């Protein structure tokens, strides 16, 4: 197998890796909100019939839109490959994606043209295949695989993400239907993009109440709440509890979930009574920003149990 270069990551590649980890840049809120609403262009052969997009080619410029944003709808199976050493895996995955009819998308990345993506995934060799769902890596493997093994792996990915993603937009899945506008979500995202955090919090709270099955809305709400508290907080409050709450909010706003959880757990260990209850309640709220099966959530819950007992 051809191995990608081992050079140190550049500044642009470090930024790409941070994006993959879920970090949020406050200065880019408007760009991100607009990107989430933008239609995703499918890579189809000229003259191909309209239908669900099953194959896309991704570079560093399109990675966020084509992989991270798209993966909130359906799993994106990213194949890190090299055109200098093509394999049958590319053809096989493309065929299986077409057969699946839009249940998942096959994304091809030429690591020679987009080395930053290989760095972000910490790929050791090509071909490497990574399933991304809700903007996060879910499962991966290296090297070519027989068709039966690929089908089993893909079935496991679909089972793990069942009911957790929003699904393919009707315009893309149906081929001829127009995209249905989500005016309520657009309004919430517009408020967030404009920095109107109180309004954004109110609108996302209403959306969470009316759409309890959409985890992405709850994640957005927890982010907005942390951003609002961080913007309103001062360093005047003394003591373990105010300091821990401020530090956790700032970490969450930066996309640093593990430090946010850790600072609260550490404060819980040295607190008691009402202080401990306040810290625990905030930690439980922040844990909701990620899926319940996220390794960071599972680790934080174990650490919380150890701190309490």
What's the short version?
The chain is α/β, with parallel strands linked by helices and 309 residues long. Helices cover 53% and strands 9% of the residues. The chain folds into two domains: 11-174, Glutaredoxin (3-Layer(aba) Sandwich), CATH 3.40.30.10; 183-308, no CATH class.
Verbal overview:
The protein is of the alpha/beta class. It folds into 2 domains: 11-174, Glutaredoxin, CATH 3.40.30.10; 183-308, no CATH class. The chain has helices at 11-20, 29-37, 63-69, 88-100, 115-120, 147-161, 170-174, 183-193, 197-210, 215-232, 240-253, 257-269, 273-287, 295-308; strands at 55-57, 76-81, 105-110, 128-133, 136-142. The chain has a 5-stranded mixed beta sheet, with helices on both faces. Strand 4 (128-133) and strand 5 form a beta hairpin. The longest helix has 18 residues, at 215-232. The radius of gyration is 21 Å and the shape is globular. The model is unreliable at 1-10, 12-51 and 175-179 (pLDDT under 50).
Q: Which labels suit this protein?
A:
309 residues, Glutaredoxin, 5-stranded mixed sheet, 5 strands, 53% helix
Topology:
Blueprint: H1 11-20, H2 29-37, E1 55-57, H3 63-69, E2 76-81, H4 88-100, E3 105-110, H5 115-120, E4 128-133, E5 136-142, H6 147-161, H7 170-174, H8 183-193, H9 197-210, H10 215-232, H11 240-253, H12 257-269, H13 273-287, H14 295-308
Helix pairs in contact: 2-8, 8-9, 9-10, 10-11, 11-12, 11-13, 12-13, 12-14
Structural class: alpha/beta
Could you give the count of β-strands?
5
Q: For this structure, what is the CATH homologous superfamily of the largest domain? A: Glutaredoxin
- How much of the sequence is in beta strands? 5-15%
CATH architecture of the largest domain: 3-Layer(aba) Sandwich
Quaternary organisation of the protein chains: single chain
What integer is the average pLDDT? Answer: 79
First CA to last CA: what distance? 49 Å
Number of domains: 2
In N-to-C order, the SSE pattern is HHEHEHEHEEHHHHHHHHH
| CATH class call of the largest domain | Alpha Beta
Shape: globular
Arrangement of strands in the largest sheet: 1-3-2-4-5
Helix content: 40-55%
């Amino acid at each position: 197998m051809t191995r990608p270069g081992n050079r140190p990551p550049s500044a642009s590649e470090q930024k790409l890796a941070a994006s993959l980890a879920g970090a949020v840049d406050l200065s880019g809120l408007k760009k991100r909100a607009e990107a989430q609403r933008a239609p995703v262009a499918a890579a189809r052969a000229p003259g191909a019939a309209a239908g669900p997009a099953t194959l896309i080619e991704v570079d560093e410029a399109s990675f966020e839109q084509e992989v991270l944003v798209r993966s909130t709808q359906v799993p994106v199976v990213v194949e890190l490959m090299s055109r200098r050493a093509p394999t049958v895996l590319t053809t096989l995955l493309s065929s299986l994606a077409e057969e699946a009819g839009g249940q998942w998308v096959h994304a091809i990345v030429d690591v020679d043209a987009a080395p930053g993506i290989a760095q972000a995934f910490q790929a050791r060799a090509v071909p490497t295949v990574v399933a991304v769902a809700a903007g996060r890596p879910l499962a991966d493997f290296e090297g070519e695989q027989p068709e039966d093994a690929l089908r089993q792996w893909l079935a496991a990915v679909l089972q793990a993400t069942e009911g957790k993603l929003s699904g393919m937009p009707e315009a893309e899945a149906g081929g001829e239907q127009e995209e249905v506008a989500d005016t309520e979500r657009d309004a919430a995202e517009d408020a967030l993009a404009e920095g109107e955090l109180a309004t954004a919090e109110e609108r996302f709270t209403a959306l969470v109440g009316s759409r309890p099955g959409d985890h992405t809305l709850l994640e957005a709400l927890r982010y907005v709440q942390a951003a609002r508290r961080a913007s309103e907080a001062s360093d005047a409050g003394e003591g373990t509890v105010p300091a821990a709450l401020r530090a956790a909010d700032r970490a969450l706003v930066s996309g640093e979930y593990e430090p946010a959880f850790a600072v609260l757990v550490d404060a819980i260990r040295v607190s008691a009574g009402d202080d401990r209850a306040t810290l625990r309640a905030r930690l439980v709220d922040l844990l909701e920003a990620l899926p319940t099966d996220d390794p960071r959530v599972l680790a934080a819950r174990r650490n919380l149990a150890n701190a309490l007992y």
